[in-house]
Amino acid sequence: MPELSRRGRMLVLAICCMSLLIVSLDNTIVNVALPSIRRDLHAPTSGLQWIIDAYTLVLASLLILAGATGDRIGRRRTFQTGLVVFTLGSLLCSLAPSLGWLVAARMVQAVGGSMLNPVAMSIITNTFTDPKERARAIGVWGAVFGISMALGPVVGGTLVAALAWRSIFWINIPVGVAALVLTARFVPESRAEHVRRVDPVGQVLVLTVLASLTYAIIEGPNAGWSSTEILGFFGLAAVALAGLLGYEARRAEPLLDLRFFRSAPFSGATVIAVCGFGALGGFLFLNTLYLQEVRGLSALHAGLYTLPMAATVVVFAPLSGRLVGRRGPRLPLLIAGVAIVASILPFTRLSPHTPVGWLFVTYLGFGLGFGTVNAPITNTAVSGMPRSQAGVAAAVASTSRQVGQSLGVAVIGSAVSAGLHGSVSARFAQASHVGWWIVAGCGIAVLALGALTTGPWAMRTADEAAARIAAADAGGQPAPVGVR
User: Fold this and answer.
1) Are 230 and 219 contacting, i.e. CB atoms less than 8 angstroms apart?
2) Band (482; pLDDT cuts 50, 70, 90)
3) How many CB atoms lie within 10 A of CB 474?
4) 121-155 burial: b if 16+ Cβ within 10 Å, else e
5) Using only C-alpha atoms, what is the Rg of the chain?
6) Which alpha helices (H) appear in 130-227, and where do they start and end?
């Protein structure tokens, strides 16, 4: 790819951030509309979970494939295709006549979204060749990601109050069209020097693991955890996972390159992403239902209640990116873990009459934790990896985020649903306590893994893994796991 001027690189970064904005915003903007969708489409709690998880599940399943496809056929071409599909899916969501159609349209959105984030990160990594400049660009990327996730409830509440829930999908259409036009004009085409082979078996196994596990968790409370159906899906997920690990370890060019996980920082970032975004998914799901179903707030007021969280993320997400660039990921991860745990503990005693001041304080604390956690995840995922693997490495990190959010909504939503009997508004606050404890547990995991995977030993494993991958790729074929 030809070297761009500084202005050209900034334009590329801005275009990539536009795509990130609509994909990430769509992860959270829908939450505040869930009560309105429940009433309009007569959706049960499990149906609300599927509105969120149909999007994140498909997104998670296809991100690695999309990253590898961009490296193979061209990142700009893949990126443009994703913009078209995502914009079309947004239009279909706004027209959905029933819950089933809405879930299907969310899946179409996710197919397009899977072609945007990992490919955009690969474009950024290959555009910004100077390590310090790349770290700052990734910091901006992480800040936009955090800001868009936090602003979702505020923007969604405003749109639902003014124009009804379907309007939350309209906002994607002009942004998607503008990004498509700008991409064609300003983003140069690029490909990986080494073209990876397609891995359809690995792709099917990844989809099977995530879909069967999510289905079992969401439908478990309704069908019964010991029912043949639920046990069968858990078993299918276990078999598919075992098959995936065994099959990918023997491939020369796997969909999921297990060599990356020899790096303790990379493995740690992957699990931290699952835990951090599991906490976010559970937080937004529970908080939205609590504010609207228990406290009786409108969608607009519920969104405004989360302004302290959004404002804190806006402030601390870019600061975290700068801190990572100057001092590395350790301190931001420790701050994030402590802030998430400290902010969630008061929610474990939530009641219909919890003082509003306490809610705002906890929102500030959670915003600090989430705003700080994202930049070190992104930076660790791509730093030290060969540039030819940038798309796949970024896709693994993005996949971890989506898997975390899917599992957060599925696990926490199902845990709370199991304690609900009768009216949601009457019992939700008490039943939600177990869900808030799970969110706090995710924060503890972020803290522990942040401390464990950012020390000198972890850094040595990262250097060794990167050297081994680079040496194998320089030989013409990536070495299967276990080959040194």
Assistant:
1) yes
2) very low
3) 10
4) bbbbbbbbeeeeebbbbbbbbbbbbbbbbbbbbbb
5) 21
6) 131-163, 167-170, 172-186, 200-223
Provide the token pair at 316: 């601390």
pTM to 2 decimal places: 0.77
What is the pLDDT averaged over residues 269-281? 89
Give the distance from CA 24 to its chain's centroid.
8
Contacting residues for 100 by C-beta, under 8 A, at least 6 apart: none
What contacts 251, CB < 8 A, 6 or more positions away? 199, 202, 480
The answer to whether the beta carbons of residues 469 and 481 sit under 8 Å apart is no
Euclidean distance between CA atoms 457 and 17, whole angstroms: 34
Q: Which of 344, 360, 276 is nearest to 312 (CA)?
A: 360
Distances (CA, A) of 171 to 101, 178, 238: 19, 12, 39
- DSSP labels, 400-454: HHHHHHHHHHHHHHHHHHTT--S-HHHHHHHHTHHHHHHHHHHHHHHHHHHHHTT
CA distance 292 to 298: 6
Would you say 187 and 79 are in contact if contact means Cβ atoms under 8 Å apart? yes
Note whether 413 and 214 are within 8 A (CB). Answer: no
Tell me if 106 sits within 8 A of 57, measured CB to CB.
no
Structure tokens at 133: 């400049």
Residue 483 structure tokens: 């080959």
pLDDT at 422: 54
Token pair belonging to 449: 């893994």
Count helices and strands in the chain by DSSP H and E runs:
20, 0
Rounded-to-integer distance, Cα 96 and Cα 209, Å: 28
How many CB atoms lie under 10 A from the CB of residue 362?
A: 23
Rounded to an integer, what distance in angstroms lies between the CA atom of residue 458 and that of residue 469?
Answer: 17
Which residues, in sequence order, are CB contacts of 346 under 8 Å at separation 6+?
Answer: 354, 358, 361, 362
Provide the b/e sequence for 384-407 (b: ≥16 CB within 10 Å): bbbbbbbbbbbbbbbbbbbbbbbb
Distance in angstroms (rounded) separating the CA atoms of residues 409 and 67: 25
Q: How does pLDDT run across 404-455, given as a tens digit for each residue? A: 888 888 888 888 877 666 555 557 888 888 899 999 999 999 999 988 888 7
pLDDT in tens, 451-468: 888 878 877 887 777 777
As a whole number of Å, the end-to-end CA separation of the chain is 31
Q: Is the pLDDT at 142 greater than 70, yes or no? A: no
